[in-house]
């Protein structure tokens, strides 16, 4: 069976631009959640978010791309370049059709779309940008990345909310197994504008707390919802033999994946999250006792937290494996969240440390060994990443040391 490895990481997050800045902030437990500054959120019931700071698109992209791209896509293009640089690869120099890209998306280019709708309403149709035809679209990150890097191999986009990042990485692994030389996969998301904010609030899952330290508390007794954020990560995936032949630095192996869909609400049937966890471990040929850490979904909705804790305990036993939710520092980045968790898991494997869950304390009745406040140093060889998206999407990803 073909082994797929990760050789490059491109990270853009509320806590840092690039792998080094992000990882340093994460291990320090730095909180990237703060009052929204991108628009006036004072009239909304929720006003906190994880915003990417210090990113100026003109510093990273050619000027011709700026008028045709949403903020989300600009971040994705920068993260893609950082991932290729980290891997030491230029996909344009590879054989034609050998390099592809799969990204996840949950919203598309909301900010671009809102601006053009305002132009339409206030000025008329002749003031709407022609780029609106694609800048808003779910697949725009995949399209712009593939064009910029001359990637004519397998491409795609996964739309399954928070679960999408894991699904995209798994789909890229399938393409490697089918013969692709290299794939770029993951997710970068942003919808922090007044139009996007209404969509977030409609879920009923957004925290209304106004203290960044008390707003996003997964598994805590006083959990009352999540905080939205923006950013994510893109990963370079290669077939292991080819990667080693070129002397690539290998972060880890994409060892297993499984996805399930929960039954409709009110059906009386239980969640299928446990099946996703067991399926990913089986796909990786990993026994639960071999897993060193679980990166949790961490919905911070009491009912959903109980479901996740029950699934973890059913697979591993109560308190049998350390669990963490580093997205308490960034907010939930939707399609970018799991890709960022994957990057963190690979860095955990590299450095032998589990990043913390800040501010939260696990309710005793959940039976979880939650790593809180400070990192926990221990050898990490196998990590399980859990993700759930609105609509019942469940996805689990297993990463292991090479």
UniProtKB/TrEMBL annotation:
Belongs to the thiolase-like superfamily. Beta-ketoacyl-ACP synthases family. It holds the Pfam family Ketoacyl-synt_C. It comes from the Bacteria. Keywords: Acyltransferase, Transferase. GO terms for molecular function: 3-oxoacyl-[acyl-carrier-protein] synthase activity. The keyword Transferase applies. PROSITE patterns: KS3_2 (PS52004). Residues 1-401 form the Ketosynthase family 3 (KS3) domain. CDD domains: CLF (cd00832). The lineage of its organism: Bacteria, Bacillati, Actinomycetota, Actinomycetes, Streptosporangiales. GO terms for biological process: fatty acid biosynthetic process. This is Actinorhodin polyketide beta-ketoacyl synthase beta subunit / 3-oxoacyl-ACP synthase II.
């Amino acid at each position: 069976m073909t082994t797929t490895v990760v050789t490059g990481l491109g990270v853009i997050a509320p806590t840092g631009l690039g792998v080094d800045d992000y990882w340093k902030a994460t291990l320090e437990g730095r909180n990237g959640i703060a009052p929204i500054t991108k628009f006036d959120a004072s009239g909304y019931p929720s006003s906190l978010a994880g915003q990417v700071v210090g990113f100026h698109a003109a510093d990273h992209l050619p000027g011709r791309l700026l008028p045709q791209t949403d903020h989300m896509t600009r971040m994705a293009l920068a993260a893609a370049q950082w991932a290729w640089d980290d891997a030491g690869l230029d996909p344009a120099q590879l054989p034609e059709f050998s390099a592809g890209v799969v990204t996840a998306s949950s919203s598309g280019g909301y900010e671009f779309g809102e601006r053009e709708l305002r132009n339409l309403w206030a000025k008329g149709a002749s003031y709407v940008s022609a780029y609106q035809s694609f800048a808003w679209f779910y697949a725009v990150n995949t399209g712009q990345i593939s064009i910029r890097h001359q990637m004519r191999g397998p491409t795609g986009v996964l739309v399954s909310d928070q679960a999408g990042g894991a699904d995209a990485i798994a789909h890229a692994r399938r393409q490697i197994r089918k013969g692709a030389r290299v794939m770029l996969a993951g997710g970068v998301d942003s919808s922090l504008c007044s139009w996007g904010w209404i969509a977030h609030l409609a879920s009923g899952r957004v925290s209304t707390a106004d203290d960044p330290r008390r707003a996003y508390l997964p598994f805590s007794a006083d959990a009352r919802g999540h905080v939205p954020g923006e950013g994510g990560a893109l990963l370079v995936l290669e077939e292991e033999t080819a990667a080693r032949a070129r002397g690539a630095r290998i972060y880890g192996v994409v060892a297993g994946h499984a996805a399930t869909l929960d039954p409709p609400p009110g059906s009386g049937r239980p969640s299928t999250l446990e099946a996703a966890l067991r399926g990913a471990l089986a796909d990786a040929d990993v026994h639960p006792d071999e897993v060193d850490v679980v990166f949790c979904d961490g919905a911070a909705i009491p009912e959903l937290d109980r479901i996740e804790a029950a699934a973890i305990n059913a697979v591993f036993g109560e308190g049998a494996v350390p669990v963490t939710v580093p997205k308490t520092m960034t907010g939930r980045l939707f399609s970018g969240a799991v890709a960022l968790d994957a990057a963190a898991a690979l860095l955990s494997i590299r450095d032998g440390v589990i990043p913390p869950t800040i501010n939260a304390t696990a309710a005793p009745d959940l039976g979880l060994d939650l790593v809180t406040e400070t990192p926990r140093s221990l050898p990490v060889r196998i990590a399980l990443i859990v993700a759930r998206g609105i609509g019942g999407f469940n996805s689990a990803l297993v990463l292991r040391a090479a």
